[in-house]
């Protein structure tokens, strides 16, 4: 594939399975980085270790070390169950729908390189559609990841993923599972457009360079490019999404944006940028490498 549209004879169900498996594997490998990112995004200037004003979480490795030391190593994988549930639904849908939607936009008779704006629009639409279905799993994942920031002695709200679903519905209503849907749709539609369209485009460009083939190196470079563009474009909405889901004090998306901007400044929207890039860069590399291998297996090229 110069893009994400399968060139061998693979069904929609097989593409869905390949993308869901690849997304779940990438999620498991990189969740500690995501947990660190969420803690950094939820951390406000007032949250300090002592009166000196030193932030509790500092940097990617420092945050991971702090979580592991204070809460135990398994805490880095908090939210893994809803995280995998999310990737099965969201990861499977956003990639498997990308090819058909892209083909629909340009027309079935189109021949040649698909324009970049069509790739961006196709990825934007599939990202929005997929997260509409998967938002409850994203909410529970963030809530579980945020549990560790509660003060010592304060009882945890949820015993696990299943308990979180039932507790949220019981205490806040069924609609609460779609809390933060606005910023989440914006975040995932934008990031999906950045990831899939950039991977698609970068890979296509690399394959035109003499000596480059459709192999692991090409997938690696395209995956890193996808992760970088996704973080640069999606960080602000990602921060707002994490805060909306992890902190119920905000009235709505705009309220969260304004309060964050007023109290912490514009750079607050890029909190956790490096752990976010570390996570998304690694996530995209692992996911696309696994996806390509799985797709080749189903296509008889393994």
From TrEMBL:
Keywords: Membrane, Mitochondrion, Mitochondrion inner membrane, Repeat, Stress response, Transmembrane, Transmembrane helix, Transport. It comes from the Eukaryota. Solcar repeats lie at residues 10-104, 114-205, 214-297. GO terms for molecular function: amino acid transmembrane transporter activity. SUPFAM superfamilies: Mitochondrial carrier. It is found in: Mitochondrion inner membrane. The keyword Mitochondrion applies. It holds the Pfam family Mito_carr. It is a multi-pass membrane protein. GO terms for cellular component: mitochondrial inner membrane. Belongs to the mitochondrial carrier (TC 2.A.29) family. This is Uncoupling protein.
């Amino acid at each position: 594939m110069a893009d994400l549209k399968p060139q061998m004879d693979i069904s929609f169900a097989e593409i869905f399975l390949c993308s869901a498996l690849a997304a779940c594997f990438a999620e498991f490998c990189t969740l500690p980085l995501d947990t660190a990112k969420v803690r950094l995004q939820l951390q406000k200037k007032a949250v300090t270790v002592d009166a000196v004003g030193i932030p509790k979480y500092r940097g990617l490795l420092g945050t991971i070390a702090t979580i592991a030391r204070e809460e135990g190593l398994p805490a880095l994988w908090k939210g893994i169950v809803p995280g995998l549930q999310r990737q099965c639904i969201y990861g499977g849908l956003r990639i498997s729908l990308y090819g058909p939607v892209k083909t629909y936009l340009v027309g079935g008779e189109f021949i040649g390189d698909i324009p970049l704006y069509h790739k961006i629009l196709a990825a934007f639409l599939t990202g929005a559609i997929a997260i509409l279905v998967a938002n409850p799993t994203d909410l529970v994942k963030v809530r579980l990841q945020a549990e560790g920031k509660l003060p010592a002695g304060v009882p945890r709200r949820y015993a696990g993923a299943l308990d979180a679903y039932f507790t949220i519905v019981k205490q806040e209503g069924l609609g609460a599972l779609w809390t933060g849907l606005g910023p989440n749709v914006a975040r995932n539609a934008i990031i999906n457009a950045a990831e899939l369209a950039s991977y698609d485009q970068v890979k296509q460009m690399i394959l035109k360079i003499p000596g480059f083939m459709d192999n692991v190196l090409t997938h690696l470079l395209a995956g890193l490019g996808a992760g970088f563009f996704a973080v640069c474009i999606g960080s602000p909405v990602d921060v707002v999404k994490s805060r909306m889901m992890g902190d119920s004090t905000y009235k709505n998306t705009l309220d969260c944006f304004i309060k964050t901007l007023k109290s912490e400044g514009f750079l607050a929207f890029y909190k956790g940028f490096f752990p976010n890039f570390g996570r998304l860069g690694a996530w995209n590399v692992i996911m696309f490498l696994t996806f390509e291998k799985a797709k080749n297996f189903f296509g008889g090229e393994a």
